[in-house]
Structure formats: C-alpha cells, structure tokens
Design goal:
single chain; Uridine Diphospho-n-acetylenolpyruvylglucosamine Reductase, domain 3; Alpha-Beta Plaits; 3 domains; 16 helices; 36% helix; binds D-malate; binds zinc ion; FAD; FAD-bd_oxidored_4_C
C-alpha cells in the first residue's frame, strides 16, 4: 500500500476524516482483547453513508482489507487491525435518524453507543432492552455485528430480536436496505438476520431500525450467597418458578475478590463460593414470593445468605459486584472463554469441566461468572506470575481445546455472545459442522467476493 492510494481516497472523498498518527493507529487498531499489536494502515472516520460506500468501493478497487469498527469493546479480537488494514470507524455516525411512535421503532446510525440508544428510547417513554456493562462505550453497530446478549437476555432475548431493519454496505459496495422495519416479511431469505452476528465479515452496518418496548414494571435487586455450583441451578429453578425474572447472573468468590479489590463494597458478610445477582418484577405478590423462595432455598441448603436492595443506590451497588468484574480483571489480561449450553446440560458440563481444570491446570486462577439463566458462562483464566505470556497463551489454548471438546459432547457453543473473531476461530469446527462452515464460506463469498471485510476473523 502506498500513500498515493490513501491520497486517492482522500481526493475522492474530500470530507472524509483520515488518521495516520501513530497514537490513533494504536487506539483504533485494537479492541479489549489487548493481545495483538495494532498495525492498521490508517483510520477512516466517515461522516455519512455515501462515504462508507465510497470507502468500500475504493477498497475493492485497490484490494485493501477493511476492519469495520464500533466501540471496540469486543473480547474476541473481532475489531483488531494488526496487519495493515484500513479501520473503518463508524464513531462519527452517531445520530438518531428518526422515531416512529406507531411502529415503536427508533432508527439510528451505527456509531451510537448503546447508552445513547437507551437514552433516546427513554425520551419516548420506551426502552431498548438489550443491556450490558459496556453500554457507555460499545456501539449499536458492534452489538449487531456480534448479536450481543448481556444481562437481560433471560427476559428480552439477544440483539437479534430487536432489529427491525438494517442498512448495510456489503463487501462488494452494494447498498442493502434489509427488512425496512417490517414485523412480518415472508419473502425469502432474511438477509438482515444473516448480517446480525456476522462480525463485520459480510457488510458494514451503517444504520439500524430498532424495536422499542414498554419499560418493565418496577423491579427489585437481590444478592444471594450460595454454598456450591449445584445449588446454583436449583436456586435458578426455584426463583424462576416464583418470580418474573429480569436478570439472573452469577459469579464466584474469586470474581468477588477482584471486584472488591477494585473498590466495590462487600454486601454479604463471610466467604461463600458462589453469588447470584437477580432482578425481578416487584409487586405485592412478589414480596411474599421472594421471601418464600428465599426461605425454601435456605431450608434446602441451597442458599447461605441474601440481601435485597432497599434503594436505587443499593441496587446499583449490588449490580456493581457483577458488572464490575470485567473491568477489575482487565489489568490481568485474562484469557476469556464465553461458552453456551442448553440450561439443562449445564450441571453435568460444569461438574466435568471443573474436575478437569482442577486436575490438569491446578496452577490457574479461573474466574467464573456470567449469565447462568441463559446457559452462558464466562470462564476467565488469569496468568500465574511465574508463567511467561507466551506459555500462558499456549496453555490457555489447550484449556480452550478441552472446553471445545467437552462443549461439543454436550451440544454447546464456544461463543455465546462475544463472537469468534480471532480468538476462537480455531475452534469454530467444534460448534459448526463442516457442511455449515462450507455454507458460511459461500455466504461470505457472495457478500464479499474479494474477501476484504474483516479478513482472518471468524474463519482460519
Ligand atoms: C460480561 O458479561 O460481563 C461480559 O460479557 C464481559 C466479559 O465476559 O468479561
Ligand atoms: Zn457477558
């Protein structure tokens, strides 16, 4: 790549912001994985749809690889540009384009943060219900590219359920307006859904029409301390049978220690192996129901202790114990696994994998947490001080191979909500059959014939 080509792009799109400063290359060339050294060619920050299309066409003419980029909060290396790609950041395209009260849809540009989407929905007394801790930094386009899940999936489902329409620039530069906000559309392949979760390998999401819904009723937040992993599933079944859950999240004592060291406040005395943060609809009936569920859990030996938030501030403090985990682990550069199983398959899988890790990798500090009510666990492995970074990654890859094999036997997936990116591409075959992967490659070829969109991500 010569500067002449970049100069050609600048001449063709005179208002396009292009950055080549080393600090910008470093900033925009990485995501939260922090494992690759950023080395993009340049950063393009389009301000309008026509510029996105112009960049993709230019890339096709010159054979330049592109990395579509949102808030770069991803944990699988999906937004990493480490081999001379042009980063196509949507961050300047962050406006609301329209609200339709009859359709209850909000149309936004892809670079809006999830938090800004929440705020925009609130202005119309509605909510966009997908939510997770990175809300302030992640972008809606990135959420769509990974079919992001988070802490409310148990109630509202993944991002996929809330996308009524997408405007996308495909890898060949074609502009596609997919589904256009329709509720029903039985007219062949749903290319919108194909785009969701495709990790920027098929097209660049430029605009999205989001479904909104009524806010949930007032809720209560409760923290529970549990004696063991088996109790977790029992308590989940118990609470789900008696309450209308909005969230049901778990973490281990090891996770709690990291969050406390990071400034959070302990909410339950003593040490307990497992904790649950749950949020549920609060009404008169739920007061008796939660007490009854709690007492039953204690009687059966599934619950050690519990606390219900008495104010919004207390509720936020309880949530911080769960939502602060990722940030508190970040300085340790954990090796992340994000696995998915049918809920019914969890207990056996957990027994097996915990025994396996304890036997084969007793020197690893393994931090478990996640969305247990969705069958989604985050298994973070921290590097022991006496192990070099290189050896650590090698051993973590062996751990992931063990996980992938075990997941395959239990019918699970190596990625629940973080995506495959660079981190998990070697394990795609544990989750998808050869026939499926061949079809996926065919789809990629159809949308992006020159293979310029996020090359190296998703597939080896
Ligand atoms: C979470 O649930 O907190 C996120 O998926 C982030 C993580 O796994 O670290
Ligand atoms: Zn998560």
């Amino acid at each position: 790549m010569t500067d002449a080509r970049l100069a050609g792009l600048a001449a063709r799109l005179p208002n396009l912001r292009l950055l080549t400063d080393p600090a910008d290359l470093e900033h925009y060339g990485r995501d939260w994985t922090r494992r690759w050294t950023p080395a993009p060619l340049a950063i393009a920050l389009p301000g309008e749809l026509a510029e996105v299309q112009g960049i993709v066409r230019w890339a096709n003419e010159h054979g330049v690889a592109l990395v579509p980029s949102g808030g770069r909060t991803g944990l699988s290396g999906g937004a990493v540009a480490a081999t001379g790609e042009l980063v196509l950041s949507l961050e300047r395209m962050n406006r609301v384009l329209g609200f339709d009260a009859v359709d209850r849809t909000l149309t936004v540009q892809a670079g809006m943060t999830l938090h800004a989407v929440h705020e925009a929905a609130k202005e119309h007394a509605l909510i966009y219900p997908v939510d997770f801790a990175a809300r302030g930094s992640c972008s809606i386009g990135g959420n769509i590219a990974t079919n992001a899940g988070g802490i409310r999936v148990i109630r509202y489902g993944n991002t996929r359920e809330w996308i009524a329409g997408l405007t996308v620039v495909a890898g060949n530069g074609e502009l596609l307006r997919l589904n256009r906000g329709l509720i029903k559309n039985s007219s062949g392949y749903d290319l919108r859904q194909l785009m969701i979760g495709s990790e920027g390998t098929l097209g660049v999401v430029v605009e999205a029409t989001l479904r909104l819904t009524d806010p949930p009723p007032p809720s209560q937040v409760m923290l529970l301390a549990l004696p063991g992993m088996d109790a977790l599933m029992e308590v989940f079944a118990l609470f789900r049978s008696r309450l209308t859950l909005q969230a049901f999240e778990f973490f281990t004592d090891a996770a709690l220690r990291h969050v406390l060291a990071h400034g959070a406040q302990r909410a339950i005395d003593g040490e307990h192996p497992y904790y649950v943060v749950t949020e549920f609809d609060a009404d008169e009936a739920s007061q008796d129901a939660v007490l009854a569920a709690f007492e039953q859990g204690v009687e059966r030996g599934w619950i050690n202790d519990g606390v219900i938030a008495q104010s919004e501030a207390q509720a936020a403090a309880l949530w911080r114990l769960r939502e602060g985990i990722t940030e508190s682990l970040a300085p340790h550069k954990p090796y992340k696994n994000d696995i998915s199983l049918r809920i019914s398959a969890l207990p056996l899988f957990l027994q097996e994998i915990q025994a396996l890790l304890g036997r084969e990798y007793p020197h690893f500090d393994v931090v478990w947490f996640g969305h247990i009510g969705d069958g989604n666990l985050h298994i973070n492995v921290l590097r022991p001080e006496n192990l070099s970074e290189g050896d650590f990654i090698k051993q973590c890859e062996q751990v992931t191979k063990l996980l992938a094999d075990t997941l395959q036997r239990h019918g699970g997936s190596i990625s629940a909500e973080h995506g495959i990116g660079l981190v998990k591409r070697a394990y795609l075959g544990s989750t998808r059959s050869e026939a499926e992967i061949a079809l996926m490659r065919g789809v990629k070829q159809a949308f992006d014939p020159k293979g310029l969109l996020n090359p190296g991500k998703l597939f080896v």
